[in-house]
Amino acid sequence: MTTIRWGVLGTGNIAKQFARGLAELDDAKLVAVGSRTAEGSAAFAQQFGAERSHASYDALANDPDVDAIYIATPHPMYKENTILCLEAGKAVLCEKPFAMNAREAGEMIDVARGRGVFLMEAMWTRFLPHMVRLRELLASGAIGELRMLQADFGFRTGFNPQHRLFNPELGGGALLDVGIYPASLASMLFGAPERVTGMATMGETGVDEQSAMLFGYAGGQIAILSQAVRTNTPHEALLLGTAGRIRIHGSWWKATTMTLSADGKPDELIDVPSPGNGYNYEAAEVRRCLRAGLTESATMPLDETLATMRTLDEVRAQWGLRYPGE
């Protein structure tokens, strides 16, 4: 493939962010968009220069001039939309948190593997330059053996029971919206936890407005994580090792600086430029995989996505949080 021809399924804010990121790549092109309405699809296509607009998701999935599709609909629609595109033979990049639960995630993965079609969770932070550098630092033993992670992602928004953040029908609450970020970071660093515990503050609509998770691992490592949609938090990540620590500064999930504090050495501020809006890097990973004939990414493998969804399921079970339809 000389140029990866993309379709975007959904026309909300996250779809717009992805379209802007895609424009940073000179060998990828947005060629089509699919929406539930002709008006919404046409407006998106005009704004971002797509050649075609489709008034249904099915029409986009079956567009013969599309190689890969980015799924940008609400959480409860991920499984249906992803399987639709996979069965049409399209590579799929599905927005995080990939599915409502591990059962849905497993069904999506089974279809992709059964048909030999590429599928990846759009955990865009995994591919950002500072995360690549972080993995290099850890692999080099810069802070010795990593033993503990502290990470948060929380913000305060006004209460609106109709908004997706507070609507249980749409997978509302902090866990799926922003808790997936620290959970995925912990997974990248330690794998799947052996022990999971947590606590949540449930709001009027029955979703978690703020919550905390504590993960324990086979080697004794610990991850202390928190997330919120009604509480502002520092948005920092602190990695503690046997010979030092790394602090990823404000908005750790899209940071460009981090501080390495190695025992016996002066602190080192590490600057990692990140051209683009960040979404260009996950699109570049899909491009790399497709050109190599791969159906999964080794950096964001499907087994890890599934394991993380199982962990979040376990957390919710402890809280007594079930989404409608489960």
UniProtKB/TrEMBL annotation:
<comment type="similarity">
    <text>Belongs to the Gfo/Idh/MocA family.</text>
</comment>
<dbReference type="InterPro" id="IPR036291">
    <property type="entry name" value="NAD(P)-bd_dom_sf"/>
</dbReference>
<dbReference type="GO" id="GO:0016491">
    <property type="term" value="F:oxidoreductase activity"/>
</dbReference>
<dbReference type="Pfam" id="PF22725">
    <property type="entry name" value="GFO_IDH_MocA_C3"/>
</dbReference>
<dbReference type="InterPro" id="IPR050984">
    <property type="entry name" value="Gfo/Idh/MocA_domain"/>
</dbReference>
<dbReference type="InterPro" id="IPR055170">
    <property type="entry name" value="GFO_IDH_MocA-like_dom"/>
</dbReference>
<dbReference type="Pfam" id="PF01408">
    <property type="entry name" value="GFO_IDH_MocA"/>
</dbReference>
<keyword id="KW-0560">Oxidoreductase</keyword>
<feature type="domain" description="Gfo/Idh/MocA-like oxidoreductase N-terminal">
    <location>
        <begin position="4"/>
        <end position="121"/>
    </location>
</feature>
<feature type="domain" description="GFO/IDH/MocA-like oxidoreductase">
    <location>
        <begin position="132"/>
        <end position="247"/>
    </location>
</feature>
<dbReference type="InterPro" id="IPR000683">
    <property type="entry name" value="Gfo/Idh/MocA-like_OxRdtase_N"/>
</dbReference>
<protein>
    <submittedName>
        <fullName>Dehydrogenase</fullName>
    </submittedName>
</protein>
<dbReference type="GO" id="GO:0000166">
    <property type="term" value="F:nucleotide binding"/>
</dbReference>
